[in-house]
Amino acid sequence: MNDFQAPASSRWPYSIRALRHRNFRLYFIGHAISTLGTWVQMVALSWLVYRLTGSAALLGITTCASLLPQLLVGPIAGAWIDRHDKRRLLLFTQTLLGIQALLLALLTYSGHIGANLIVIMSLALGVLNAVDTPLRQSLLSRFVDKVEDLPNALALNATLFTCSRFVGPPLAGLLIGMVDEAGCFALNALSYAALIFGLLAVRMSAGVRANGTMGNIFREGLAYALQTPSVRGLILGVLVVNVSASSYAVLLPVFARDIFSGDARTLGWLWGAAGFGSLLSTLLLAGRQSAEQLQRLIILTAAFSAIALLVFAASTHLALSLVAMAVLGFGVTINNVGTNILLQGQAPEVLRGRVVSIYTSTRFGFDAIGGLIAGQLAARFGGPWAMQIAGTFLLIYCAWQLISQRITARQSAQANDRATR
């Protein structure tokens, strides 16, 4: 139990039960405002890149620069996180993220921004997020004083992300026309203050810290992930889904302008449709789900995501494409959030920072690699072809997983029959 957390009321509805914990409520409110600002900046930056350069390849490079550090730095950051006071570290990273957004706003407003500076600023954002993302995820278990409320806290935390993903992109589309991209970046810089104030009001002890050298702590976490079959399988699924299905994010400006002859508002609606699907998925995950049900749901919705990619790639009708985006957002989020719930549910407290960092580095790192590949394919063959390739790859993986599961189930049944004879 958190040493300084007051007893929680049990009158909260079951689907939002984690909000009965004071520390989680403070985090939840601050993070809600901060995440909305993050989505506004993300859409504004992608539109700025394509407006200035018209390059699909640069969209992929920029996305890769903002996400790839999580693959390279994330696992090491997890070992560092487990050695320190997580709340103080989060205050520090949130402050630096606010400074990064403010600097981006000033460069854009002054007219000094260009392709090289955009990549550099995206890289700086990626390095900060490589520490900030697993840090926030691993702290969630400290914000609730009952372990049975952790899955709900993780689902509600994801709901913040998906609600912002639903509201933020259309809002960004409006703001870009009203205050331009620099104004969007400045608003994001201001939004970080909400979470900083929330963290300052949290009352909790420093928590358990890992002992030993950085190398030994890192190897201990890596060995746990590689030698635990269930963890290894979940990480593989996150890798495949994010290198394929999540690549749609890079290509949306291409479809908005070139396929649908739209503007920033069209881009906002496409992002918003994906966000709506993600929101539905987190509402589903906030309810009661057993581990077995969640594992089946993850592979099923991955197949839905593959089909949605193929439909979106072939569609020239905005309404159909919005539906495909909603299905895609639903499937990708079920996979990512569901995997996070399963991993944190079985990870020991002292290993949680490292397990979460391996998960987030895989999720965002291979999202970056997928975005880079998608951008290069789109530059060479066009956006629809790039998305068709991603959808086909994911569909093949899902078929392989389903066949493997049936073979494993059949072998297990045969072994049980022999044991009972």
TrEMBL record:
Q: What is its main location?
A: membrane
Residue ranges constituting the Major facilitator superfamily (MFS) profile domain according to the UniProt record? 23-409
Topology relative to the membrane, per the entry?
Multi-pass membrane protein
> Which superkingdom does the taxonomy of this entry point to?
Bacteria
Q: Which PROSITE patterns does the entry link to?
A: MFS
Q: Which InterPro entries match?
A: MFS_dom, MFS_trans_sf, TM_effector
Q: Coiled-coil intervals in this record?
A: none
Q: What is the annotated localization of this protein?
A: Cell membrane
Q: Cite the entry's keywords alphabetically.
A: Cell membrane, Membrane, Transmembrane, Transmembrane helix, Transport
Q: Where are the transmembrane segments?
A: 26-50, 56-77, 113-131, 185-202, 234-256, 268-285, 297-316, 322-343, 355-379, 385-403
Q: What name has this protein been given in UniProt? A: Predicted arabinose efflux permease, MFS family
